[in-house]
Write a structure and sequence with these properties.
Chain A: It comes from Tistlia consotensis USBA 355. The complex is a heterodimer of chains A (692) and B (177). With 692 residues, chain A is α+β, with helices and mostly antiparallel strands. In chain A, a hairpin with an 8-residue loop joins strand 2 (38-45) and strand 3. Chain A starts with a helix and ends with a helix. The relative contact order of chain A is 0.06. Chain B contains seven helices and no strands. Chain B has 177 residues and is an all-alpha fold. In chain B, helix 5 packs across helix 6 (92-99) and helix 5 (65-88) packs antiparallel against helix 7. The chains are: A alpha+beta (692), B mainly alpha (177). Chains A and B meet through helix 23, helix 24, helix 29 and helix 30 of A and helix 5 and helix 7 of B.
Chain lengths: 692, 177
């Protein structure tokens, strides 16, 4: 996992604020107002309060003289804070927890771009552990209970009661609540996706096997495990496994158990041992819950949990020059060394080992079925990635879904896609994971079906549908925004705008027109997928029109209709800049009408719509069905007339009017008519003469 | 099929351009008694209308414009003799007497001659007229074509046949979902 962790580290991601701002202090140019209630000072960074994916700055409430101190976190523009918690946590302000008081996307002068800025209650003391590798004076039993367990219990209970998982409980995210260092408080948990900043040591085995982005929301049980690890680290005065890789940590936990990995042979007071064994239990069902912890904190002692005992094989399985004694650790090793595992599994050794050494016949049969496939024999060819993924599920059903470099809990595949979207290989692997229906295989591999699995399954089937359609509005982009409700739109057009809600989309595009109309179109694959995912119920014909690359007129109308739909739903009512931007691309649409008069009328209507900033008016003006029908009919009539004239001209030019036959025929007609007239006149004269 | 069946059914008269014997029989049944009763008139009209009879024999076209041209004027020329016969009383003597009067011959044949003259002299005149009209007509038609192109674009001439959309409420309605 260490290799993987390095592959997907965020060191190369552009960071907001923080370091860059520190290099450009003084360029902040005044305060930044958040929700009208708080003022942030871009020129005053607070590095001590920085989070791995957010940078801290001084802030103050505008109307709260003598209130609780606050600070600001400027979030990473390529990530999404946990917005769903922001409405729930502020009511927990009395608890020892840094709660978000406000959040807004604002213009951040040091970056010259818009950023999500969080306002949080500020701890008055220092971090308990300055950084994940730092050592400090170990806490004794009394200090641990008095300063950590007792103050944090109400917060853990309240979070558990509300079904909120903190997912950022770790020693370097614990703060002393005051300068006297008498009590601790939990740091914030909303600036980055859940568990993204958690080192592997703080995660249960099932979660530690996943990429940091794929650990998901988890549950209170995961928080309690992290709390147990935190207590162990505080007792040890630092991380005892700081020098181990993620893979080594996972294998140590699998082979020796978390308690033994963290505490080793250190002797601890019995009461503490009891709590740590309960919290660090590697079997989630056996792990202490909030009630157990509360009882223990109130002095009622429970029997210590025994370490998890994995079925040990009679002989080890040798892989990558190491011996593995149980299926779970072998599965983990295969996951960490994918290519070697594909090669190793060419023969039947694994099936034989599981059958004879582990003595698990059912598992051996399942593996045989997977590896022999429909041929009924074992090939000596290396296993396919898909086959290996299913073998890993058979070896360890509780482990995350693993497929090449991707490893995520079953509910967090979308989070991995979002966090690693810049990584082409992860995008490809995600698409293959969904396309190969590995999610379904994972569900099938589980010992029992849970109610939430049905919802997840349906969601992933929908993602498969999106991936099958590669046109604009679908594909990976659609998966990204469907799976991540608050993820910012990653369109290059909006790279400085940090648009996370549909209401922010059109104003952000409007702002782009402030310094002249951009040459690119305002809708690309990301903008389209973002808008469609956020709006719900976008007419399919708009998406189809957007994908009509073979018909430029229809495609451009699709662009206007999509943005008009957004304006109709969420406003704002006037968007003159965006309307002008769209208007400049309407030339082919106007040209598609045949009548010059209609084109002139449309040009005037376009100008009126642009001036009014009404995109819906613009769309309707450019795609008036009756006008187009009139135009088609008139054009057909004109074409028929032109053709008839052409025929007549050709006839005349070939001497049609002066040809003897024609002249003779006409002469005869004229002669008859003339004779008739003359006879009538003569008859009249004669009659008058006779009777006169 | 129905048309073929209808053709096979025999009809009372002759079909197409042949002689309609029924009509001819009815006509003769009415005309012969009249001709017998009005024999002097019949004689006079037949003799003075000989140019029309000749025209009828000469003009084999379907429209028979020559017959119409000569016949109408010949009829005007016959009328003075006819009026004179009816004035003097219908008798064979009076009819012969009138036929010996050259004035009536001149009137009838002269009028028919005018008809012949009109018929034969018009083609050169009409030809000259159409020669004069041709250029004007060409100019007018070309101007109209230009107007159509100005109003509807070059595509109206059929040189840009890329118009495939028709009959749709709007362009987006035409997009298959």
């Amino acid at each position: 996992m260490s290799d993987l962790a390095e592959d997907v580290s965020f060191a190369d991601l552009p960071r907001s604020g923080g370091r860059r701002q520190r290099g450009s202090q003084g360029q902040g140019g005044g305060t930044v107002r958040v929700e009208g209630r708080f003022e942030v000072e871009p020129g005053f960074p607070l590095p001590a309060l920085d989070q791995p994916h957010a940078h801290a700055f001084a802030a103050a409430a505008r109307d709260q003289a003598g209130g609780r101190p606050v600070y600001a976190l400027v979030c990473d523009p390529l990530l999404a804070p946990r917005r769903s918690l922001m409405s729930q946590l502020p009511t927990m302000g009395r608890l020892p927890l840094a709660v978000p008081l406000a959040y807004e996307t604002v213009f951040w002068p040091p970056d010259n771009a818009r950023r999500g800025v969080l306002i949080l209650t500020k701890p008055e003391g220092d971090r308990v552990q300055a950084n994940p590798q730092a050592s400090f004076a170990p806490f004794d039993e009394d200090a641990l209970i008095r300063k950590v367990v007792q103050p944090l219990m109400p917060a853990l209970i309240e979070l558990g009661a509300r079904g909120i998982s903190h997912r950022a409980i770790r020693a370097d995210n614990l703060f002393f609540r005051d300068g006297a260092r008498n009590e601790c408080m939990l740091g914030e948990c909303v600036s980055a996706p859940a568990a993204l900043d958690q080192p592997s040591v703080y995660e249960p085995i099932e979660s530690a096997l996943a990429l940091p982005a794929g650990r998901g929301l988890g549950s209170t049980s995961d928080d309690l495990y992290a709390f147990g690890v935190t207590l162990a680290i505080l007792l040890r005065g630092g991380n005892p496994v700081a020098d181990m890789t993620d893979e080594q940590i996972v294998h140590a936990k699998l082979n020796r158990g978390t308690y033994a990995t963290l505490i080793g042979k250190q002797r601890l007071p019995l009461a503490i041992t009891e709590a740590l064994r309960g919290l660090l239990c590697d079997e989630p069902i056996e792990r202490w819950g909030l009630n157990d912890l509360e009882m223990w904190a109130n002095g009622r002692h429970l029997s210590p949990k025994q370490p998890m005992a994995l079925t040990r094989a009679s002989r080890p399985f040798e892989f990558n020059e190491k011996d593995y004694w149980n299926c779970r650790s072998l599965s983990a090793a295969f996951g960490y060394h994918w290519d070697e595992a594909c090669r190793t599994l060419a023969g039947e050794e694994l099936i034989t080992w599981v059958h004879r050494s582990v003595g698990d016949e059912k598992r051996a049969e399942r593996l045989a079925l997977l590896m022999r496939g429909s041929q009924g024999g074992t090939s000596s060819e290396p296993r396919s990635d898909r086959q290996l993924a299913r073998v890993l599920m058979a070896l360890d059903a509780r482990a995350p879904l693993r497929f090449r470099q991707l490893s995520a809990r079953i509910d967090s595949l979308g989070d991995v896609l979002a966090v690693h979207y810049a990584d082409q290989s992860i995008r490809q692997i995600f698409a293959e994971t969904i396309g190969n229906r590995l999610v379904n295989f994972w569900f099938e591999a589980q010992p029992g079906m849970r109610p939430e699995y049905a919802v997840l399954k349906k969601g992933y089937e929908q993602l498969g549908f999106f991936l099958m359609r590669q046109r604009i509005g679908y594909g990976l982009e659609r998966c990204l925004y469907e799976e991540n409700e608050f993820w910012p739109c990653l369109s290059p057009l909006l790279s400085d705008a940090y648009v996370t809600r549909i209401e922010e989309l059109l104003p952000a595009l409007e702002r782009l027109t402030a310094n002249g109309l951009p040459e690119r179109e305002p809708v690309d694959r990301h903008v389209a997928a973002f808008a469609v995912a956020r709006m719900r119920g976008t007419p399919e014909r708009i998406l189809t029109a957007l994908g009509r690359d073979d018909d430029e007129v229809v495609r451009r109308l699709g662009v206007v209709y999509l943005l008009a739909e957004v304006q109709r739903l969420v406003g704002p009512a006037r968007l003159p800049g965006l309307a002008a931007w769209l208007g400049q691309s309407m030339a082919p649409v106007i040209e598609s009408y045949n009548s010059r008069e209609i084109r002139q009328t449309l040009a005037l209507e376009l100008q009126a719509a642009v001036d009014g900033g009404d995109l819906y008016h613009l769309a309707l003006a450019m795609d008036d069905g009756k006008l187009r029908q009139d135009d088609e009919r008139g054009f057909a009539a004109a074409q028929a007339e032109y053709t008839a004239i052409g025929r007549e001209l050709a006839w005349i030019e070939q001497g049609g009017l002066t040809r003897p036959q024609f002249v003779f025929a006409k002469s005869q007609q004229i002669a008859a008519v003339a004779a008739g007239c003359l006879a009538s006149i003569t008859l009249l004269v004669m009659t008058m003469f006779y009777f006169g | 099929m129905a048309a073929r069946k209808a053709k096979d059914i025999p009809t009372g008269g002759s079909g197409g351009g042949g002689v309609n014997w029924t009509k001819l029989a009815v006509g003769l049944l009415v005309a012969l008694p009249a001709m017998v009763v009005l024999l002097p008139t019949t004689m006079l009209v037949f003799v003075l209308s000989l140019p029309t009879v000749v025209a009828f024999l000469v003009d084999r076209t379907r429209e028979r414009y020559l017959v119409a041209t000569v016949g109408l004027l010949n009829l005007c020329g016959v009328l003075p003799a006819l009026v004179a016969l009816w004035d003097r009383g219908q008798s064979i003597d009076n009819a012969f007497r009138l036929l010996t009067d050259m004035v009536y011959w001149i009137a009838a044949f002269g009028a028919a001659g005018v008809g012949w003259a009109i018929f034969t002299s018009l083609p050169p005149l009409v030809s000259s007229y159409y020669t004069l009209v041709t250029q004007h007509r060409v100019n007018h038609l070309r101007k109209r074509q230009k107007q159509l192109i100005e109003a509807w674009g070059e595509e109206v001439s059929g040189r840009h046949l890329d118009h495939e959309r028709d009959g749709h409420e709007s362009l987006l309605d035409a997009v298959p979902e």
